[in-house]
Amino acid sequence: MLASEATHSLPYPVLTLLVLMPLVGSILTLFSSSRRPEFTKLIALVTSVFTGAVGLWVLASFETGEEGFQFVSKHEWISSWGIGWHLGIDGISLFLVVLTGILFPLVIVGCDPHHDEKRYLAWLLLLEAGVMGSFLSLDLFLFFLFFEIVLVPMYFLIGGWGYDQRIYAATKFFLYTMVGSAFMLVGIVTTALLAKPDLGRMTFDLVEIAEGANFAASTGRWLFFAFAIAFAVKVPLFPLHTWLPDAHTQAPTAGSVILAGVLLKLGTYGLLRFGVYLFPEAALWSREIFLTLAVIGIIWGAIAATMQKDLKRLVAYSSVAHLGFIVLGTFAFTSEAVSGGVMQMINHGVSTGALFLLVGMIYERRHTRQIAELKGLQKVAPIFAAAFMVVMLSSIGVPGLNGFVGEFLVLIGGFETARWWVVIGATGVILAALYLLWAYQRVFHGEPDEANSSFRELRLREGLVLLPFVGLIVFCGVYPKPMLDRIEPSVRALIERVEEVTGYVAPAPVVMEHSEHEGGEG
Amino acid sequence: MGDTMQYPSIDWLAVTPLIILLAGMMVNLVLAALTRPWPRAWYAIGTVELAVATVVVEMFLWHDIGRDGSRVVINDALSIDHFTALSWIAIAGALAMVSLSTADYLRREQLDGPEVYALYICAAIGAMIMTAANDMVVLFLGLETLSIALYVLAASHRRRTESQESGLKYFILGGFASAFFLYGIALLYGTTGTTNISGMGDVLRAEVFLEGDDAMLLAGVALLLVGLAFKVAVVPFHFWTPDVYQGAPTPVTSFMASVGKLAAFAAMARILLVALPTRIEDWRPVVWVLAVLSVVVGSVLAVVQTDVKRMLAYSSISHAGFIMMGIEAAGHAGDEDGLPAVLLYLVIYSVLVIGTFTVVSLVSRTGDAGSDLGSFRGLGRQRPALALAMTVFLLAQAGMPTTSGFIAKFGVISSAAANESYAIAIVAMVASVIAAVLYLRIMISMWLSDAEAGDDARENVGVPVTANVVITLATIFTLLVGVFPGWLIDAARTAASFAG
Q1: Which residue from A54, A212, A311, B26 puts its CA 20 to 30 A from A421's CA?
Q2: For residues A55 and A135, is the Cβ–Cβ distance under 8 A?
Q3: With contact defined as beta carbons under 8 Å apart, do B279 and B204 qualify?
Q4: What is chain A's Cα-based Rg?
Q5: Would you say B24 and B119 are in contact if contact means Cβ atoms under 8 Å apart?
Q6: Across the interface, do B426 and A182 touch by the CB < 8 Å criterion?
Q7: Separation between Cα atoms, residue B262 and residue B282, nearest integer Å
C-alpha cells in the first residue's frame, strides 16, 4: 500500500535538511552585513545550491518502483495535540521537490531585484523552505503550517519588488489564498477530531488517518470540500483564478517563476495528497464538478490568453489553462491520467518558469511587456528567439518536448473515464498553439522598428540560466521513462486505494507500457 | 457564633504574591511622597523587580498546588488553584513588561513617574483578586480596584485632552457596567442565598426550579453577563473600546488590553463554569451570539479605520470574540479543551498586544499623537529591526503559523470543532481573513509605501533600551511559542480546573 513506509529509512534526516537549509540560509542572509552585498548573495546561493544538490541526491537514491514513502523522518513535536514532524517523499512529490531545488538557485542567479537585495534573498529562501516543507509534510498540521507560511514571503516579494500595481496584486493574492486556508484549517481540525475514535488518539498524521479512519460518506464529502476550496484557490481553478493574472503580472520575474514553477503545484499536489488520498470516496463522488471546472479553466484560460495585450499576462492565463489539464488528469482516475497530471506539474513548472524568465529578460531590455510595442526581435537576437521558440513549443505541447508527454497521458488516460471532458479539453491544446504562436509571430517576426533594433542578444549568464530549462524540456520530452518509472508506482497505489475504498474499477491501462515510445517518436 | 467576631484563618503562603505587590505599592507611594524625585527609570526598575519577584513566588505557588492540591482559602473567598496561579503569572509578567515600556514613554512625554507605577501595581492587585475570587463580593472588589486604577491611568497624560476624555468616558461607562454587575450579584444572592461562587454552584445543583420559578436567577445571569461583556469588550458592549484605547497613553492601552482582558475573562470563566454550570443551556447561546458578533463586527470595523490604535482596539474586540468561542466551547458537556484554549489565548494575546502597542508607542513619537497609518510609513527603511518585530506581532495577530497567534487560534478552533460548532469556527476563520486586511495595511505602510512629502521632517523613531527589551522579549515569546508550544499547552491544560 501507499503507506507501507520506511522502506528506506536513513540514519540522518535528509528531508529535514531540505527544509531547514533554506531557512538557515534565510536567517543568515538577513543578518549578514549590508556593506558586503556580494557576500550576502554568496550565502543565498550556496544554501540554495546545496539544497538543490540534496534534492538531486534524494532523486538519485530514490528506490525506483517503490510506491510508499521514502526517507521518512518522524518525530514527536507538539505531543499534547498529537502533532508530529513527519516528512516523507514518494513518486508524486519527488520531482516537485527536485524542481523546487533546481528552480531557486537558478532564479537567484538569473533575476536581479534592483534594490534591497538582502531582504529579497531572505524572503526568497524562506519561500523555498515553505515550499519544500509543503511538498514533504505527511502531517496535516505541519502541511498547513508550511502551506500558509508560504504566503508571507510571496506577499512581500510581490509587494516589495513588483511592478506598478504590486500592492493590489499582493493583497489580492494573500486574501484569496487565506480564505481558502480558513476552510482548510477547520477541515484539518475536524478531520483529526473525527478520526480520533477510530484511531484511539488525537493525531494529525496523514498516513495514520488515511489508513485507520473511517469517515461516513457525507462527512467525508464535507471535509473533502473544506480541503478542496483551499487547493482550488491555489491551483487556481475557475472561477477562483482571478488573483493569478494580477499576481503573475505584477510580481518580479523571480516571483513569477516560482509562482508558476512550484507554488501553483501546491494546489494540484494538495488535491492528490490530501484530497484523493485522504477522502477517496468524496473525490470520486465529486469528480464531475472538478472535471467540468478544469475544462472550463482550460478553455477560458486559452481564450483569455489569446486576447491579452501584455505578454506576461498572456503567459499567466496560459497557466490557468495548463493547470486545468493537471486537474483533468487528477480527476480522470486512471493511473495514466494521474501520472500524466503529475508529470504535467513538472513540465508546466519548467516551461512556464522559463517563459516568465524570458519575458522578464524582454522587460529588462525594453521596459515594456506590451506585445504591440515589440517587433522583429528574431532579426536582432536570433539566439534569444530560438530559446523562446523551444520553450514556447514545449508549452504548446509539441511532440518531442516535455509538454507533449504529460498532456498526451492525461488525454489518453482520461478517454475511458472522462471522455467528453477530454474531448473538449483537447481543443485547449489547439488553442494553446494559437495564442502562443500568434504572440511569437507578433513579437519576433517582421522587421524590427527603431525601438527594437537595439534589442540585446542573450548574454552568457542568461544563457547559462536558461540552459537547464531547455535541457529538461528536451530530455523529458525525448526520454520520459525514468520520470514515469518513479511516478507511476505511487500513482497506481493511489488509484488502487480509491478502488479498494470505493469499489470503483479503473479501466485497464491502455498505453502505460507504450508511453515511453510515444515520447521517443516525437 | 460567640460574642467576639470570628476571624478567618489566613493561608499566608497563598496570598504572598498579593502581599508583595501591596507592600511594593505602599513603599512606592511613601517614597514618592517623602523623598525628592528619583530619576524616572528607577521607579520602573523597582516595579519590574517587584513584578519579577511576584512571578517567582507564583511559580513556587504553582508547584505547591501541584503537590498539595488546590484549595479555597480565607473563608472560601479566594481559590488557590492552577487557574489562579497561571493567571497571576501572566498578570505579573504583563505588569513587568508594561512598566518597562512606560519608562521611556514617561521620559519622552515629560510626565512624572511614581504614581503611574503605583496605579499599575494597584490595578494588577485588583486583577489578581478578580482571577482568584471565589466569592462574588470579593470578585467585585477586585473588579473595582482594577477598574478605578485603570480610569485614572487612562487619564494620566495630563496635557493631552484625548487622554482626559478617554479616562472620563471609561469611568462613566465602566461605572454603568459595574452597576449592572453588582445588581446581577444581588439577584443571584437573592436566588441562592449565598455570594460564594462555588457555593452558588452547589445550591443550584441541589435546587429544582419549576417552570417560571427561575426568573430572578435568569435576570441575575443576564445582568452579570452584561457587566462582564462590557469589561471584556465584546459586541454590542464594545463602544467604549476604540475611544478609550485611542485616547489613553499607549502603554496604558496595552495594560488594559492585556491585564484588563485577562482578568475579566478569567472572572467570566469562573462565574459561568463554577457558579452556573447547571445553567449552561441558558448562557451558552448568549455567549455564542456575542462571540460571532465580536469576531465579525470587530474585524470589519477594524479594516476601515485609519488610526492604528483604533484598528488595534477593534482587532482586540475580534480577539475577544475568539476567546468567547473558547468559553462557548467550555460550556459544552464533557469538553476538556475549551478552557485550556481560553487560557492559552489570553496568555498569548497579552504578550502580543503589549509588544504591538510598545511599537505603536515608539512610532507615535513625542506627544503620543502620531498613531495614524502614515506615521508608520518608511519604518521598514528607517528602523528595519523594529519594523520586523512589528511584522511578527501583526502576523501573529493575523494567525500565521509559526507564531504564537496561530497556536492560540488553533486551540480555539479545535475546541469549537470538538463540540461540532463548525459554523462558528468557519465564521471566525473567515472573519480572521477580513482582519488580515488590517494587519496587511499596517505592514504595507511600514514596508511597501513610498515616501511622501513631509516624511523627512518627522522626528526619527527612537528605540530606547527598555522598549527594546520589551519588544525583544515579546518577539522571542511569540516565535518560541509558535514553534514549540507544547509546554504552554500543557500548562494551560493543567490550569483548566477550578478549586472549590
Answers
A1: A311
A2: no
A3: yes
A4: 22
A5: no
A6: yes
A7: 24
What pLDDT, on the 0 to 100 scale, is given for residue B187? Answer: 93
The whole-number pLDDT of residue B209 equals: 74
A chain contacts of residue B493, beta-carbon cutoff 8 Å:
80
DSSP 8-state class, residue A71:
E
Mutate which: A185, A193, A218, A227, vs B, most B CBs within 10 A? A185
Residue with the three cell numbers 489569446: A306
Rg of chain B in Å (alpha carbons): 22
Q: Is residue A261's pLDDT more than 50?
A: yes
Q: How far apart are CA B342 and CA B322, in angstroms?
A: 9
Alpha-carbon distance B184 to B190, whole Å?
10
B206 has pLDDT over 90: no
Q: What is the pTM of this model?
A: 0.91
Query: Number of A:B CB contacts under 8 A?
Result: 79
Rounded Cα distance between B476 and B389, Å, is: 10
A85-91 mean pLDDT: 90
Residue of A nearest to B428 (CA): A182
For residue range A95-108, list pLDDT tens digits in order: 999 999 999 999 98
pLDDT in the model for residue A231: 93
Contact B401 A159 (CB under 8 A): no
**Subunit contact A183:B429, Cβ cutoff 8 A:** yes
Bridge partners of A370, per DSSP, are A310
Separation of alpha carbons A148 and A131, rounded Å: 10
What cell does B134 get?
471565589
Residue A85 pairs in a beta bridge with A75
CA-based max dimension of chain A = 74
**What tens digit of pLDDT does each residue of A440-462 get?**
988 888 888 887 788 888 888 88
| pLDDT band for position A185 (cuts 50, 70, 90) | very high
pLDDT of A9 strictly over 70: no
- Taken in order A443, A446, A452, A456, the sign of the CA dihedral is positive
Residue B326, pLDDT above cutoff 70: yes
Report chain A residues whose CB lies below 8 A from the CB of B426: 182-183, 186
| H or E element in which residue B191 lies | helix B161-192
pLDDT tens track for A33-51: 778 878 888 888 999 999 9
Contact B258, B94 (CB under 8 A): yes
Does ipTM top 0.95?
no
Flag whether residue A189 sits within 8 Å of chain B, measured between CB atoms.
yes
What pairing do the DSSP bridges indicate for beta strands B78-80 and B71-73? antiparallel
pLDDT at A140: 92
∠ CA(A455), CA(A456), CA(A458), 5° rounding?
130
- As a whole number, mean pLDDT of residues B444-466 equals 80
User: Which chain B residues are closer than 8 Å to A166 by Cβ?
Assistant: 448
> Which member of A81, A182, A189 has the closest CB to residue B430?
A182
Residue in A115, A189, A250 to test binding to B, most B beta-carbons within 10 Å: A189
Tell me which residue has cell 487547493: A231
**Whether pLDDT at A520 is above 50:** no
* Cβ pair A268, A134 in contact under 8 A: no
End-to-end CA distance of chain A: 35
Closest CA to A154 of A138, A166, A139, A142: A166
Q: Do B440 and A149 touch (CB under 8 A)?
A: no
Cβ of residue A148 closer than 8 Å to a chain B Cβ: yes
| A144 in contact with B, Cβ within 8 Å | yes
pLDDT tens digit sequence for A347-406: 999 999 999 999 999 888 888 888 888 888 888 888 889 999 999 999 988 888 888 888
* pLDDT score for B320: 95
Q: Tell me how crowded residue A17 is: count the other CB atoms within 10 A of its CB.
A: 18
pLDDT at residue B370, rounded to an integer: 78
